[in-house]
Specification:
single chain; alpha+beta; five-stranded mixed beta sheet; 30% helix
Amino acid sequence: MGEEKTTFQGACRRSPVAAIAAFLALAIALPCFPALISGQTPIPAPKEADVAGAPLHPSVGSSPGGDMEYVIAADDVLDVDVVDVPQFSRDYRVGPDGTITIPLLSSPVTAEGLTLNQLSAVISNKLRAAELVGHPHVVVSVKSSQAHAVAISGAVHAPQIYPIFGPTTLLDVLSQAGGLTADAGSMAIITRSGAAARASWLTKDAGFVADAGGSLKVDLRKLLATGDPGLNITIYPGDKVTVQRAGVVYVVGAVERPGGFTLSSGRDKMTVLQAVAMSEGLKSTALQKRAMIIRRGRQFPDGREEIAVNLKKILAGHASDPGLEANDILFVPDSASKRALQRGADAAMQIATGIVIWGRY
C-alpha cells in the first residue's frame, strides 16, 4: 500500500492535470454510493393503470391557448412501430369498443381516450410484462382518422371532408377547400355537435353566441375585408363548415338580357335600377308603368306577393328605388301594340334602305 501511495503521489506531482481529473471523477461518483449501499433499484416505468388513470392532456376540443396532444378516437388507424421487432409493427384500427388487438397479447389494449405517448407506454408495458420483448421501444402515430376531420360544404371550390389532427382556423379551412366560389354568400355557418362541444365555443372575445343547435354564423365579408382575428374562429376536429351561397334575383320580360343575377361581391340586397342595369336595360316595347316584383314566401296568402313598380317614375327620379331580396323576380311586361309598331317601323326602315340602294323596292 505504501508503495502504491508513493506511486500515486509521484504521479500527481508529475501530472497535476491527471490529479484534477481523478478528483472530479471521485466527486461525481460520491452521490451515487448511498443508493448503491442501501440496495435501491431504479424507478420502474409506469404501469398501464398509472397511465390510464393519469389526467389526459387537453383534447382537441379544449382551449387553443394550452398545450394540446392528439387524443385517440374510435375508428382511428394507428401506425404502431416496435423498433427492431417487425412482428408487432403494423397498422392497427381502433375498434368500436376503443381497443386494438396486438398479436400474442392475451387481451386487447385500450386505446380510445389516450394520447399517442400514453398508448406507447401502455403497449411497451404489456409487451414487457408478457415477456415478449425485453426492452421495447414503441412509437405510435396516426395514419388516418374519421373523427378528427372537418366537413366543408357549400360555396367552395373543393367541398369534401378534410382530416385535421388539431385545432385550426376558419381561414385555413377555407383555403384548404380551394377558396370561395363566385356565387358565395357573406355568411359561413359552423356546426359543432354535442353539449360538451357547444360549451367549448370561445365566444366572449369575438362577441359570438352559438344557438341552441350548436351553430355559429361568421360574416365572411367582414373577415376577408378586415382580417379581424376575432372573426377567424378556431375550428376543431368534428366541426362542419357550410358556406352559404349568395341569393339570386331574377329579371324577366322586356329587358335586353333576362336572367338570374347573384347577390355577390358583398351585396346582400339589390335595387330595381341595379337589376335593370345588370340586365342591360329595358327594351323599347317595355311597359315601364306596369312592372312588378314577385316575392315568394309561405307567409303570403297565395304563396307569393306582387308589388307594383312604376319604372318610369323611378327612372325620372320621382319615386324611390325599391330593394330586391334573394329569389325575387322583377317582371317587366311587353306591350303588344308597341311590338307591332316596332315591327312596322323595322319594315319601313328596310323599304327605305332598299330605295336608297336600288332606287326601287
